[in-house]
Write a structure and sequence with these properties.
This protein has strands spanning 9-12, 18-26, 32-38, 48-53, 58-65, 70-75, 86-90, 98-100. The protein has 102 residues and is mainly beta. It is globular and about 30 Å long.
Length: 102
């Protein structure tokens, strides 16, 4: 089974929408998350933005750290106004919702 990789395109099995993996980020205290956006969206160069954790409908923060390309997800206690909006899904649950597009 193909593993999600940065830049790869995946089909949401239910919505039949294409998404692109933006990054794989470690979460504070637990595993990794696959962060993804709709395939047509430009990849953000901003230092921070918020993502929606689709399993529990809660916001989590994705903050840029040093060195470059080092990101870390942490839970937020309030909404923030960062853009763009993306989604995050636990790495181990990825294949239950997405199919790789060749």
């Amino acid at each position: 089974m193909k593993s999600p990789a940065i830049g790869s395109t995946w089909l949401n099995n239910k919505k039949q929408t294409l998404y692109r993996v933006w990054l794989i980020a470690p979460a504070v205290g637990c595993g990794e998350y696959v962060v993804y956006q709709e395939a047509g969206q430009p990849i953000s160069k901003r230092g921070a933005f918020h993502v929606r954790h689709t399993e529990i409908e809660n916001l989590i923060g994705l903050a840029y750290l040093e060195p470059p390309n080092d990101w870390l997800i942490s839970w937020l206690d309030r909404p923030v106004d960062w853009e763009p909006i993306a989604w995050a899904r636990p790495h181990e649950m990825w294949h239950s919702k997405f199919t790789a597009v060749e």
